[in-house]
Amino acid sequence: MLNIGKIEEGFVLDHIKAGKSMQIYHHLGLDKLDCTVAIIRNAKSNKMGKKDILKVECDINQLDLDVLAFIDHNITVNVIKDGEIVDKKDLFLPKEIKNVIHCKNPRCITSIEQGLPHVFVLADEEKEIYRCKYCEEKYSEIK
Amino acid sequence: MRHLMSPLDFTTEELEQLFTLATDIEHNMPKYANACKGKILATCFYEPSTRTRLSFESAMLNLGGSVIGFSDANSSSASKGESVSDTIRVISCFANICAMRHPKEGAPMVAASKSSIPVINAGDGGHQHPTQTLTDLMTIRSLKGDIKDFTIGLCGDLKFGRTVHSLINALMRYPNINFVFISPPELKVPSYIKEQLKERKIPYKQVISLDEVMPELDFLYMTRVQRERFFNEEDYVRLKDFYILDKNKMENAKKDMLVLHPLPRVNEISVEVDEDPRAAYFKQVQYGVYVRMALILTLLEIEV
User: Fold this and answer.
1) What are phi and psi of B228, to 5 degrees?
2) Are residues A21 and A63 in the same domain?
3) Which of A69, B103, B121, B169 has its Cβ near the most Cβ atoms within 10 Å?
4) How many beta-carbon contacts under 8 Å exist across A and B?
5) Contact B67, B44 (CB under 8 A)
6) Do A109 and B127 touch (CB under 8 A)?
7) Tens digit of pLDDT for each residue in B15-69?
8) What is the pLDDT of residues A54-113, one digit of tens each?
9) Residues of chain A contacting residue B126, judged by C-beta atoms under 8 Å apart
10) Which of A107, A114, A116 has its CB closest to that of B105?
11) E strand or H helix at B93
């Protein structure tokens, strides 16, 4: 059994689909923050078989919940203060995400227009389909 | 200020107002001859499209306005690397309304977001071509009286044809329309469109042979089957003649069935069909001018 120390203030992202933690690490920009991060991969889970966990010691406001929800809205977000869980955040699929993913359609205007943000809009909430705001190309890689 | 990016930007009620105006224009052209006097339309065509550009220019000239523009990217600042955002800001200083065609999908939307004048999407890659759809709807409405209670056959390349996808999407909003999709298996209508039809409980069927469904159609919307869409020459040769509309096939059609085509035609409609009173594809071009005139007036908020 691997033991990772408790964190005093920050958040624990639990029930991450096994293998997705590094993707989340990068999308949340954790590599750019000067804080303690523990990445636990392939932990045993009764619910999921295997899961990843991320523990991050930083201000909760630094976490972009929309990005997280886009990647996987089934992740449990535990907010930690004074070493205890003080809150659990629900994740909802964001209506729009900006500059998180890029449109891969070579015919899309985003492929040539300088400074244009890559914007995806939630086209079908039930099927979790995002489409490029400009060319309506479906994005499905992360799901 | 409004723009036109997709045919679905307008509600069916707004489209009805637009078509009513277009019909009034059709019957009272002199009344509108000076409606846009002093106004300038910029046609910003980053790729050649003589037909659409001339239709827009004809529309503006019929309204008494003027036209400026370019007809390919090489004759614009795009060849020097200017962004669409910058171009439209500049064009906004020169013109009152802009029709833009661009090979990149979503380019007119980017232009609209930075523009201080109305922008009309005149075709963006394989994405949208809303004024073609408005033309198609206007033609149906004018020749039939309304847009409801009919069976429309869409024939040819239903997989890649953007005019077909836009038209289906637009027609889904009208009551009691049956769709018949006539195409080779390789060029079937995409599944997401069929899912939308199922969700809305709109009847449709898919067939390979045009002959077998001809008698049940009220409209036949022809498109071109392109050789390059096939995986092998054999399939192309086997199927291409299925979709050539000729006198023989027309004999099985209803007496009042109408044939539409977004044009240009290559050989999918024999020239012998042109003399048939049911051939409506050249009338369709004329309706395209009326509907673009109505659109220009609507977006410029000019009342006559």
Assistant:
1) -70, -10
2) yes
3) B121
4) 50
5) no
6) no
7) 999 999 999 999 999 999 999 999 999 999 999 888 999 999 999 999 999 999 9
8) 999 988 777 777 888 888 888 999 999 888 899 998 888 999 999 989 999 999 999 999
9) 107
10) A107
11) helix B84-94
Quick check: A110 and B109 CB within 8 A? no
Report the CATH fold assignment for B131-281: Rossmann fold (3.40.50)
Residues of chain B with CATH 3.40.50.1370: 7-128+285-299, 131-281
Tell me the nearest-neighbour CA distance from A110 into chain B, angstroms.
Answer: 8
**Confidence band (pLDDT; 50, 70, 90) for B202?**
very high
pLDDT digits (tens, 9 = 90+) for B213-258: 999 999 999 998 777 666 678 877 777 777 899 999 999 999 999 9
Tokens of residue B66, six digits: 């003027």
Q: Distance between CA A130 and CA A119 in Å, rounded?
A: 10
Residues B274-301: what's their mean pLDDT? 98
Q: Which residues of B touch A114 (CB under 8 A)?
A: 83
Q: CB of B195 within 8 Å of any CB in chain A?
A: no
At residue B187, the 3 state secondary structure works out as helix
For residues B150-168, one letter each, b for 16 or more C-beta atoms within 10 angstroms of the residue's C-beta and e for the rest, the string is bbbbbbbbbbebbbbbbbb
Residue A57 sits in which domain range? 10-89
Q: What's the pLDDT band for A134 if we cut at 50, 70, 90?
A: very high
* Domain total in chain A: 2
Question: How does DSSP classify residue A47?
Answer: T
User: Cβ of B230: how many Cβ atoms within 10 Å?
Assistant: 18
CB B74 within 8 A of CB B90: no
Over the stretch B137-187, which tens digit does the pLDDT of each residue have? 999 999 999 999 999 999 998 988 889 999 999 999 999 999 999 998 888
Q: Do A61 and A14 fall within a single domain?
A: yes
Of A52, A73, A89, the one marking the end of a domain is A89
Chain position carrying tokens 């035609």: B265
